[in-house]
Amino acid sequence: MSVTxxxxxxxxxxxxxxxxxxxxxxxxxxxxxxxxxxxTSILIKRGGYAFVDCPDQSSADKAIDKLNGFNFHGxxxxxxxxxxxxxxxxxxxxxMPPMQVGNGWMRAAFR
Length: 111
Hints:
With 111 residues, this protein is an alpha+beta fold. It has two helices and eight strands; from the N terminus they run βαββαβββββ. The strands form three sheets. It has a four-stranded antiparallel β-sheet. The longest helix is centred in the middle third of the chain and has 11 residues, at 57-67. The radius of gyration is 19 Å and the shape is elongated.
């Protein structure tokens, strides 16, 4: 039986937060171009953040180095690797979020 290997994903997705209200896809694309950074697609979301696809991990790392903390129209950008929404952070038992039970609150003790 032959096993087919799946090629590695070569695109890297970034989260860009703390965008100014006037930011749009064009202005963000221009920022990347001005900094000699590559991006393939940009998705701006309401709430002042965006997801930016870089062609590879090296391009993503350069974008993080150059743009994290960058003053973009008066806002200091937050640029970091995007975390897939399906992968929720797990909480250690002592820091699990509280859950409402009846009229009170308690810490969940599920494993």
